[in-house]
Each structure stands twice: as C-alpha cells, then as structure tokens.
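Deliverable D5.2: sample structural annotation.
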Amino acid sequence: MEFEAVIGLEIHVELNCPTKMFCDCPNRYGDEPNANTCPTCLWFPGAAPRLSEVALEKAALLCLGLGAELQPTSVFDQKVYYYPDLPKGFQLSQAHLPLSRGGGIEIADETGKPKRLRIHHIHMEEDVAKLVHEMEGRVPISLVDFNRAGAPLVEIVTEPDFRSPHHAMEFLKALRTQVRYVGSSECSMENGTMRVDANISVRPRGTSQMNTKVEVKNMNSVRHVGDAIAYEFARQRAAVEAGEAVVLHTRLWDPDKKATLPMRAKFEGPCVPDPSVPVIALSREWIEAMRSRLPEMPAARAERFVAQHGLSADEATFLSADPDVARYFEALVGEGIAPRMALHWLGTQLLPAVKERGQELAATKVPAPRLAVLLKLLARDEINANVARKVLGAMFDSDDAPEAIVEAGGYRQVSDAKELDLLIDKVMVEKKLTAADLQGGQGKAMGFLIGQVMQASGGKANPKKIRELLAKKLGTA
C-alpha cells in the first residue's frame, strides 16, 4: 500500500515591536536577565494589561500581506493549563475569535506546477519567559528570565494541505519573504523570531481520512523542518505497516541524531475568555487604512522587474525574494547603472562579500550610490573587471571614494593605443609569435596573447582594446 503525508504547520512569528504586547517594557533581545519587567508583565495584583497599538498594526499588516481577512471582532482568551514560564501561570492567546481567517501562499511543487497552500487563521498571543537549566555543583537548578514574557507574537495556523517536506520548506521561504516585506518581523529561525511546529500524520494515498497526528517541535532552520518531516513520515509509515498504532504526542527534532524523539504526551486544556483585555473591534475604515500601507509584494515586484528591466522570471524572482536586495537593485538602477550590470554585480560580487563579512545589506559600508560610482568607472573602461573586484574589496575597509582607491593603487586601465601596441609587439617578440601563428591558432592564440599582454601590464591593460588592436594586426577588424 502506498502512503502519503498529511502535514499542517503552526508558525510563531515574533513581531518587531519596541515594547511588549500588554505593557511598555522594552521588547529587546540580549539585555540582562529580568531587566525588562514591570508589574504588568510580572502580573502583580491590580496591574491591568493594555494592548499595544503598534503590535496590533504589525499583526494586521502581516495578516493582510498573507492574503488573510481581518475579522471585525477578535478577543483574547486564557489558556488555563499551567505555564511555568509565565508569572500568571497561563498564556493570553486568541483561541476562539482570532485576528484573521483565510489567506495562503502559492508555491511551485516538485514538478514546477503551482500549488496553493491555505492558511486557516492567524491569531495574536504573548510569548513566554526563557527557562535556563543549569547545574549548581551537583544540584540541577532552573532559572527564569522574564525579559521575553509578554513579547508580541502571532501564530499562523495552516490547513493540512502539505504533502511533502518540499511543500513545507517552500511555504516557509515564501512566508518569510512576505512578512519581511510588510516589515512586521525579521522571521529568523536562527535567532528565534520565527519558530515552527509541524503536525504530521499518514494515510493511504488517494483517501481523505484524517488520522492521528504527531507534533514535532524544536526546528531552528528551514532545512531542519524538511528533514524532520521526512523522518517522521518514514517513522509513522513503518509503524502503520507493522500494525502499530500511532499515538497522539509531541516529539522533538534532534539535528545531531537526525531523528525525532519523544517529548511528552499531547495535552490541550480549555481556553476561556479573558476579562482583563478589551475586545478588539476593527472598523472597515481602519482595515482599509492598514491595507493601504501594504508595500508592493514580491510577486508583483518580480513581474514589474521583468517588464521594466527586461530580466528573466528567475532573475526577477531572485531579486524580489529579499526586500533589501530588491531595494538595493532599484537604487543601483536609479543611479544610472544598467539593470543587467546591476544584477550581475549585486548577485555575484556584493552579496557574497557582505555575507563573508557578517554584515547586513541594508547597513553595509558599500551602499548603492557608492557601488554605482565604481560600476560607472568600469562601464567607461577606466578600470577592468578584475580591478573593480579588487577595489570593491577595499571599499569595505576604507571610507575613501572609489576613484581615490583607484588612483592610490594605480589601477586605472591602460587604453592608449600606442602604449598597448608596444606591449603587444614586446610580448609577440618574447613569445616568438607572428601574425601567421595567430591566424593559424585562431581563438586560442588570441586568448593566450591577450592574457600575456594583461600580465605584462600588471593587469592594467584594457582587454577590449587589446582585442581590437590584434584584430587590426590580423586584418580581421
């Protein structure tokens, strides 16, 4: 019997708000433990929560960016089973009336065909504190850092539309791009601002039955999500084929063992309306005002890049996948750089250099106007491509203008015909080459001689001009 996976995702996204969800404490990573706390987020008696308007706006933009419909009314509930990492012992979430319903993302499946993966709903909730487990001598102790308690989150709950690790991985990549575009979160799994749980079950292919699912947690990269789903599908399939029952429970992904491991029994307690947080009522005007704040989204931007700049669909998709990359590309073009040159230097030179140095493109020492100056020198044949790459590296370590780096290094390209003719003749004498040798050897001899002239000039000769002069010598110009 052939089996298929039935997969749904629960994705927690931390909103990049300056404060927590229900108080004015900083929502900031890396501060001293328990520095960002107050009577509200520590839930002292008499302290009333107050919903952050910024958190609501960022959550609403995220929902709209994923094609979801904001609900006119949403409310917070208490998850009344015990939370040891929240001062009040329960979590505030939206179990019954979420902020939005519907939405989805279109991906390309394994065959390249479009597949829409639906979102069931998106709700707001607060994050929990950080538990730190240590050994004090031989005695294990657990410490609690409440800085994260009350940080603003949204949870994106999908429909069980996924059938493979590929579907899940492509969905997460696209979702990350969409959310970054609207500016609601950085969506970094490595830094914990996006966390993914996968619910996985198996069934005979071709049937519509929904069987017992297993939840897998602790996946901190898109690749780990794919690996965990693949492992868990194989584990459950083997169990069913052996006549064993699949038991509802939660498992952890161990990236070292490349296996899922039992964590705990699955338990979901009741959720009851919370009386301390007012009902969220969104007017039609407010929703439309949020919709008007949406930026041009990746698919639309890619289509425009194809039409406006003559790029291929794959090239436009590459540029549009990251908002910072797309903005940088448009800034280069706005500085007068040809789209094809901008694409080439951004993709093959600048982005690898930025990554190698551990920088962010939006804060790099080589912003678009500065790179544009260098590329204009290259376009005017004042320097060659090898020199341009060398100067680009120097620009990360110096605040000098590209022209100043070129002059200081003596990198300006030699294009003077008389000077290049002398170099060509010198190399031909040294290598004992004649025009007949070049004509007989055709392209190979031509390429060899260009390389030798470049070497003799210390890399400063203009290779285009050398080729032109050689063509004249051979009578093929």
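Annotation notes: The CA atoms of residues 415 and 465 lie 6 Å apart. The first strand starts at residue 3 and ends at 14.
The annotation will be released with the project's public dataset once the embargo ends.
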